[in-house]
Amino acid sequence: MRIDIEHLGKTVHVGENRLDILSDVSFSVNSGETVAILGSSGSGKSTLLGLIAGLDVPSTGCVRLDGDDLFALDEDGRAALRARSMGFVFQSFQLLPGLTALENVMLPLELAGRGDAEQIARVQLQRVGLTARARHRPTQLSGGEQQRVALARAFAVAPRVLLADEPTGNLDARTGAQVIELMFELNRAQGATLIVVTHDVALAGHCARRLRLEGGRLAAA
Amino acid sequence: MFGNGNLAWRMLVRDWRAGELRLLLLAVALAVASLTAVRFFADRVELGLTREANTLLAADLVLVSDHPVDATFAAEARARGLEVSVTTAFLSMVLAGEENALAGIKSVQPGYPLRGSLRVASELYGVDAPTRSTPAPGEAWIDARLAGALGVAVGDHVEVGDARLRVTAILTFEGERGGNFMALAPRLMLNEIDLARTGLVQEGSRVIHRLLLAGDAAALNRFRAWAQARLARGERFEDVRAARPELRQVLDRAQRYLGLAALLNVLLAAAATQIALRRYVQRHLDPFALLRCFGASRRRLLDLYFAQLGALGLAAGALGTSLGWAAQQGMTRLLGDTLRLSLPPPGWTPVLLGVVTGLALVLAFSLPTLVRLARVPALRVLRRDLGPPRAGALLAHGAGVAVVAGLLFWQAGDARLGGIVAAGVLALLLSAVLAIRLLLWPLTAWARRLSPGPRLGLLNLRRHGWETTLQAMALSLGLLALLLLTLVRGDWFESWRAQAPPGTPNLFLINIQPWQVQALDTHLRARSIDDFMLYPMVRGRLTHISGRVVDPAAFDDDRARRLTEREFNLSALAQPPAHNEIIAGAWWRPGETGVFSVEAGLARTLGIALGDELRFDIGGLPFSGRVTSLRKLEWDSFRVNFFVIAPVDMLADVPRSYVTSFHLPASRRALLGELVAAFPNVTAIDVEQVVAELRTLMDRVAGAVQVIFVFSLAVGVLVLLAALHTRRDERAREIGLWRALGASRRVVAIALASEFAVLGLLAGAVAAGVASLLAWVLAQRVFDLAHAPNPWIWLAGLGGGLALVLAAGLLASRELLRAPPLRSLNRE
Asked: Which of B215, B312, B508, B674 is most buried, judging by how many CB atoms fall within 10 Å of its CB?
């Protein structure tokens, strides 16, 4: 899926003060391309990712997915598009504590009404090497294992776009490296467009292209 | 939408396994259990008590008519499986030799009464015993008054109209007459077959026909509904409530108390559900955002959650109802002997009530929760700084309020009771908010000077201002229920003890002639019977009210018609009787004449007001007077009562007899024989059996009320625990942080203890204040009881609040105190 970001801006008002989180950000990502968005804390990385996912609406500009304006859709339309086309990996894993690893992977498949949710989830868990941990709850898994479950979940719906928010932010260097390897390996196999937000230079190094956000603006393409 | 139901079910099962739903299910199920247990038990007790009371009506339901009841009614009742019996009653002179007396004649069929039994003795003032038989053809059973008036004994003959009957027993107890015998003529009971022989029942005779009915409550209700539409003029139904006012009072109070307990249980159920749902929403904010991120639309998620919570509500309702049923079975078994009441099986209404309540509570209270969840920004998965959305809209909360209000009125079965309790609870919630703002905030300012433990605890209360307020509200609601039920029960039992205390008069002497008064007084006092008073009694008919002629036919009210058709008992006294209370106007001054004091109930029925001029026909002479006071009296006190009292001088020259009542212990029954021998014309009426019946009924009601009370206590405590459980996750992290920052376990324990103690005291004070006020209003407006302010309630509120909240809070936090700080900090 090709992604075009055109003059994207996000402004919030805190009391009487106006705060520009993102200003005039434009870039394009080709279908199947891997892009890293680098930046320090508060540079607007997560806001940008949220806008690309359609989780929030911009103050200015637009996001086009294969040429179509994402924000021409209403919220439910964007949700349906996410269900069809997008996968997510989060810094804090976002596994539901009450569910087992298998059930966490099944969740987006079930939401999509897939009758074969369990078989697919089991295959995905096998791909991330966690077959033996299928019945374990998140609290019984290490950080690396939790992020591998999150990867299995993200790829289970065969997304055309994978959006990753600091996927190694909560992991030590060695585990982080393993997770990065796994994520890119899975992505190669599925050919999804990958946008990863990070301040981890090693992670960014795996991407074909790197963009830097500074104070809400794109610094270098 | 594909497979939403399936997914909702799977999510429900997973949430259940994860322990997310247990508190909610437990809260709702226990609340429903308490409600249905009360309802099941109350229904059964109500049915049992009514049946017990029905022995005093001789039936479960009576169709009363001024003409022979159409045979189709009896046929239809039999076809519906009901027991049927017919009685006919009228007033007539009874002759025995030269003597004659006006008597209430009643013909009965074999099998009478359908409920309870008659008691008879084989001689006047002899030992009596219950009997299942009725007078055989040619026989008459008469009561002591008639035997006294006619001077006949068992074996003698009497004449009723054209029939000559042999007296074969002295009738000592007839449930239907109750304690109201004073106003009635003496009794002669005969067989139905002899009725025609008397020749007294003719076209136009003033006769009361009764069709007595007994059987299954549902069948009776259906029959009543069927017959109601077919009633002709002069026909009406009477149940024990309409027929026996003194029993009605006992039953109505019992029903209202059980209603109050059930009502408070509804409120506690609502509080428990609300508390559990708050925790549920806190724990579902992230999953909701995540699912939105995965592409589920808001609408679909709301559908999913709604279906999930609906299923949970249904399950909780069903589980709670089963628990409630089991609990009441247990209660019944445990209390079988204590209650000494045979309880009919419970009906299905509580089952419906339980399931509907579970569902309605969960769904109605979910609405604000769901509105809140729906507002969770999906962006929360990326930006943790986006906090939880604000609580739901007022409209969404309105659903919960509406459901609780609906349940309140359904449960109360009495708009006034429901309204008063609802207003009381509103006052409680506002007082809780005020108490927090006015008392807690200054307290925390002062807390900064304290040592670390208490300081930490008190500042923590303030830091979680809104949560603290909610907890105080829930805790004070739980305590209110406990205190209010205690207070009302106390007032009620106190009034019972006052009404029929040991030593309640059980013997009435009537027909005492003026020249016998002194001798009788001496006779009784010589035998250490001192607690009595001899009242003059004059019979008179009310002819005019403020110049208007009293026409019985002009009254719509049956009771008014009956009262104006016959003569009243009047008395002439210098002082109001001790057990009467002047509720309007004033008693006359010495020497005043031309005035009357009227019983308030009679005044209400006949539309008599203070200042009205009444005229009586007494022995053919007119007597007029102005109403200067209204008196309230307890008809079930078994003391001599008069509808109308005049000053002594006013009736000085009127022919009169005297009447008195006193208590004669069973061991001194022999005195009765001496008395009758010394004063042969005086008639003694023994009401021991009537007093005993009423006291038994009261004791059983008291037993039932105790059980319901204990059950409500348990739910109250559950709400306290649930309220303390709400902040558990947050508290765990707080404790972890305090410990990580170097607070010792002891300091943490003191902090928690201070927090719980202050919360308990505040909630206790608010609950005690509102409970005192509500108990007073309920006693005045609903229970019609004298309310004595009880200062102990403050001690109980403060002490109970402190002890319960402190103990439950520390117990619930024990595990958190022991856990290593890291585990608490990493807690999800």
From this structure: B312
Given CA atoms B61, B67, B72, B75 in this order, what sign does their dihedral have?
positive
- Tokens, residue B54: 């029905």
B267 SS3 class: helix
Residues in A touching B2 (Cβ below 8 Å)? 113
CB contact B810 to A (< 8 Å): no
Q: Give Rg (Cα) of chain A.
A: 17
| Cβ distance of B382 and A49 shorter than 8 Å | yes
Cα–Cα distances (Å) from A208 to A195, B318, B385, in that order, read 10, 60, 31
In whole angstroms, what is the distance from residue B697 CA to residue B54 CA? Answer: 11
Distance from CA of B302 to the nearest CA of A (A): 13
Residues 18-47 of chain A with CB under 8 A from chain B are: 46-47
Q: Determine which helix (DSSP H) or strand (DSSP E) holds B439, and give its type and residue range.
A: none
* A112 interaction partners in chain B (CB closer than 8 Å): 295
Q: Helices B688-725 and B22-54 meet at what angle, rounded to 10?
A: 170
Long-range CB pairs of B4-11, under 8 A, 24+ apart, other chains included: B4/B300, B4/B303, B4/B304, B4/B307, B5/B307, B7/A110, B7/A111, B7/A113, B7/B304, B8/B303, B8/B304, B8/B305, B8/B307, B8/B308, B8/B311, B9/B308, B9/B311, B10/A110, B11/B304, B11/B308
pLDDT at B484 over 70: yes
For B494, list phi and psi in degrees, rounded to 5. -60, -45
CA–CA distance, B367 with B361 (Å, rounded to integer): 10
The counts of H helices and E strands in chain A are 7, 10
Q: How far apart are CA B91 and CA B71, in angstroms?
A: 24
**Structure tokens, B629:** 């006071």
Specify the higher pLDDT residue, B820 or B650.
B650
Closest-CA distance of chain A to residue B292, Å = 7
Burial string for B417-432 (b: 16+ CB within 10 Å, else e) reads bbbbbbebbebbbebb
Residue listed under structure tokens 């209370």: B581
A218 — contact with chain B (CB < 8 Å)?
no
Residues of chain A found within 8 Å of residue B292, distances taken between Cβ atoms: 55, 79
- Closest among A149, A75, A83, A147 to A110, alpha carbons compared: A83
pLDDT mean over B338-359: 76
Q: For A29, phi and psi rounded to 5 degrees?
A: -125, 125
Distance CA B507, CA A16 (A): 89
Backbone dihedral angles phi then psi of residue A198, each to the nearest 5 degrees:
-160, 160
Asked if pLDDT for residue B2 goes beyond 50, the answer is no
Q: pLDDT tens-digit profile of B746-762?
A: 888 898 999 899 989 99
B245-259, B368-382, B530-544, B779-793, range with the lowest pLDDT: B245-259
Which ranges constitute the DSSP H helices of B188-297? 192-198, 217-228, 240-243, 245-293
Alpha helices in A14-129 (DSSP H): 45-52, 75-85, 101-111, 117-127
Q: How many residues appear in chain A?
A: 221
pLDDT at B412 over 90: no
Q: Which of A37, A51, A55, A139 to mutate to test the interface with B (most CBs of B within 10 A)?
A: A55
Task: Give CA–CA dist B152/B144, Å, rounded.
Answer: 10
Give the distance from residue A98's alpha carbon to the nearest chain B alpha carbon, in angstroms. 4
Q: Do A55 and B378 touch (CB under 8 A)?
A: yes
Distance CA B714, CA B730 (A): 27
Rounded distance, CA B444 to CA B441, Å?
5
Are A21 and A216 within 8 A, CB to CB?
Answer: yes
Distance from first CA to last CA of chain A, Å, rounded? 20
Whole-model pTM?
A: 0.63
Alpha helix (H) residue ranges in B438-575:
441-447, 452-463, 465-499, 517-526, 558-565
ipTM over 0.95: no
